[in-house]
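Form 12-C: Joint structure prediction
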Amino acid sequence: MKLSSKSNEYSVPEYSLTGDLLSFLTCNLQYRYQNKGSLQPSRPLQLWFGEFIHGVMEEAYTEWTLKKTQFPWDWLKDIRPIEEKIDQRMQARGLYPPSPKYFTPYKEIIGNEPIEIPPKRIISTRIENSINLWGKHLFPLMDSAEVLIKGLRTMPLEDKINRRSDFYCVNGVIDVISSLKINSPVSKDNLIVEYLKKEEFYKKNRLNFEREYEIIIDYKGMKRPSQDFKPLENRSPWNYHEWQILTYSWLRYRQTNSREIIAGIIFYLNEILPSNEDLRVIKTDIEKGRSDVEISKKDRDLIDDWDGTEENFPNLSDSFKLDRSIRIIEISKEKVKKALKEFDNVVNDIEKSTLNESKGKSIKKSWKADGDDRTCDACDFKNFCNKHSNNPFKFLTIP
Ligand code: SF4
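Section 2 - Result
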């Protein structure tokens, strides 16, 4: 009897939309070291803030569904316990806050008694404002949170002989799926629905007011990116975020329980309470015409007159913050097709670099060092990567 031999191992490469594709676009070489080389950043600040804000928003929604606590929520009573819970969960996974004392209460003498006061950092005020400004409109529309989506696509790499697989798997986690029925009482006086109604595509689509539609929602713990006026194919953070939402919609649409998806919404939560650094970049965006959001004369004057210091941080209006923190993205077949093609190109680039390395090319020759200044500034590899090899001391801070 002839025994059959074991077939060669066959695995389909899996790509996460944010963890791989967007990360590769931030800098190819940094992605290689961190994701493929498992070299965790020594200062994973961005990672911590991102996970923390997502965790708290998700838990806040769960609390709201259970207790229906009225808005506005009180930070100490309603939000602080959620923050502690998320911090503990993250620490159990090895993700620690920026400093060990980040959440440690300090003592203050009130009357004659020493009372423990929990510190309220900028991220806590940002979360409090996000819940009280957006949560009260968002939570009643929400259907589900943290929805895992996956799909299979043809491997774009042309080198059919050497490519690892004929397909690749793309996956992601949608922060929120909201259902929208325009005529329902929940949609009445809802600020998110009001923002949607202002959009051109919303006005021209003949939506059935009795039908339920879906909206895909993503939170980002960052400022709104500079607007890119170039076509969707152009590589810029502004377009990457749109590709992400459009790809989510393609993946979601394939799930059996999905309904027609009419829009994607990104909430840029730093806009609710910008840091000094955020506001400096926002100011430059406005001055250089790279902001897509209309600004009132009063807010414009406040920003123009601001000298960039924390002491004189301007008191901007809530409408300015709300307008800048919400970005609505139209979902259409053509745009989805374009976004998928762009992510196919990114997978092609990653696979090419992987192949080059497996053929013996060095890491630095296989992966491009192409981070922007802000990314490089926080990067652990800047002192030996190609981009800064001519000036290895560029980022050394001299006191
Ligand atoms: S220093 Fe900049 S270019 Fe070099 S690896 Fe880091 S992010 Fe990329």
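Section 3 - Comments
Residues 14-351 form one domain. DSSP finds 14 helices and eight strands in the chain.
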